[in-house]
Amino acid sequence: MHGSEILIPLLGTAGFFAAAIVWIYMHYSSRYKERMALLEYGKDADVYKPRVRERNKTLKYGIVAVMVGLGIFMGNILDGLGMMEEAAYSSMMLLMGGAGLVGYYFMLEKKKENERKNDSDTL
């Protein structure tokens, strides 16, 4: 192995981490400057308060995990039927994981619709 074969990946990795550190520094320093400017002009800096976390995040991850597991199972079946192994597993995992996310979205929309209906009924 030549020295350059080791050096090139190391330099690439170091460059990536250096860029990440610069980006993080720039991001937080600009937020600080924006906050100070808002406060200087008497504006409310509540824009930077953390948003309320999604209450059903665990449910979303659970649905996606179950669907990806189902995708692995279906990929195994397709692999046994003669489909290429990489295509069978990756396509089924992505397809079923995506179906889980779409199903979760529709479930939340239905829940929001029911909440709006209940709110309008109480008025």
Describe the structure.
The protein has two domains: about 5-45, no CATH class; about 55-120, no CATH class. The model has no long low-confidence stretch (mean pLDDT about 85). About 80% of the residues lie in helices and about 0% in strands. The chain is built from three helices and no strands. It is flat, with a radius of gyration of 24 Å. The protein is mostly helical and about 120 residues long. The longest helix has about 40 residues, at about 5-40. About 5% of the residues are buried.
Determine the strand fraction and express it as a percent band: under 5%
Coarse shape: flat
Helix-and-strand structural type: mainly alpha
**Helix segment count?**
3
Measured distance between first and last alpha carbons: 76 Å
Overall strand count: 0
Biggest sheet character = none
Oligomer: single chain
* Mean of pLDDT: 83
User: How many domains comprise the coordinates?
Assistant: 2
**Percent range for helical residues?**
over 70%
**Radius of gyration in whole Å, from Cα?**
24 Å
Parts with pLDDT < 50 across at least 5 consecutive residues: none
The run of helices and strands is: HHH
